[in-house]
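FORM 7B: Structural annotation worksheet

SECTION A. Query
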Amino acid sequence: MSSIVTLTMNPAIDVSTSADHVAPVHKLRCGAGRRDPGGGGINVARVASRLGAEVTAVYPVGGFMGQLLNRMIDAEGLKSIAIPVLGEARMDFTVLDKTTGEQYRFVMPGPELREAEWMACLKALAGLGARPDIICASGSLPPGVPDDVYARVAGIARDGGAKLVLDTSGAPLVAALEARVYLIKPSLRELRELMGEPLDGQASLIGACRSLIGRGFTELVALTLGADGALLVTAGGAWRAPALPIQPVSTVGAGDSFLGAMVWALASKMSLEDCFRYGVAGGSAAVLAPGTGLGRPQDVRRLLEQVTVESVPD
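SECTION B. Predicted structure
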């Protein structure tokens, strides 16, 4: 199996709980909470590792919350390279309104990183003794980190002969595409923002993905569509997978779980269609878990049999 390294520039501890009803002003009496290690790349690493991948998580971390985050990652059995920083690791908070079934997500910006700190993350990637086959960079950037940091990661991947899988949005995504990546995984909202178009309908979605591929920005686009499933687009083909009929427990981390399962399948050298199928199963498995529990291997493999992948004719 190919080796995987994930990069999480803005790791977090994800706290989740529930309340009978979410309302302003009043004290909200919450149920028992849970804490999970979080941040895009860390979540990808958790899922890929559970499925059997050889994966190492690289992330900057500091403060009391950082110590707790390190212990939680160690408890997952993940290999990691934690880059010490001065700032306190962030904590994100999700509350389930039990009356409406809606989730409310409160996401903190993260600590401001100094240049020496974010550069240390890049040096850790470039200085790995055993070069990875796949680098997966995922998540937002904390204050102080320049928008071109993922473009720099693309250069490190290219120099080391690795494939860069990227899940981010906005200016960092635009800069990275200019440097060229192997695969991006936008949501529908993120693709619309990237293209500056409404993109209504399957043909327009595939056309937008193909335009990114045709301009040499990426080789693959895995587009997650929420309740409408997902699309995988390459230069020569497109595949559609409808969403599975699942009553969600929590949608937090579903996109990360999709990517974690897909990256594991890529590392296992499966066909692109099967990699996509695993991604859909991984994202579906995540919504069965509370908080940021992410997809469990037994759920991923059980749901895999229910995933239908259809080729979309040109």
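SECTION C. Observations
The CA atoms of residues 20 and 98 lie 5 Å apart. The chain has one domain: 4-19+32-311.

SECTION D. Sign-off
Analyst initials: ____
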